[in-house]
Amino acid sequence: MTGAAVDAADAPPLLAVESVDVTLGRGWRANQVLSDVDLDVWSGEIVGLVGETGSGKTTLARTVVGLVNPRRGRVVFEGQPISTLRRRARRAQRRRGDLQLVFQDPLRSLDPDMTVAEIVAEGLRVRGETNRGEIRRRVTGALDKVGLDATVLERTPGQISGGQRQRASIARALAVEPRLLICDEPVSALDASTRNYVLRLLDELRTSLGLAIVIISHDLSSLAGIADRIVVLYRGRIIEDGPVDRVFATPRHPYTALLMASAPSVRHDRPFSPHELRRTGWDPVPPTGPGACVFAARCPFAAEACAAQPPLTAVGERWSVACHRHDEWAALAQSRNRQKG
Amino acid sequence: MAIDNRNPLPDLVGAARYEGGADDVLCLDDLHVSVHNGAATAVRGVSLRVRPGEIVGLVGESGSGKTLTCRAVLGVLPPGCAVERGTVSFGGVDVTSLSRRNWERLHGSHMGAVFQDPASYLNPVLTVGSQLTEVLRVKLGLGRRAAHRHALELFEAVGLHQPERVFHQIPPELSGGMLQRVMIAIAISCDPQLLVADEPTTALDVTIQAEVLELLRDLRDQRGLAVLFVSHDLAVITQLCDRIVVFYAGEIVESGPAGEITERPRHPYTQALLRVASVGDFRRRELEVIAGQPPRVGEDITGCRFAARCPVAIPECGAGPVRSVQVGDQHQVRCVHAAKTVVT
Question: pTM for the whole thing?
Answer without folding.
Answer: 0.88
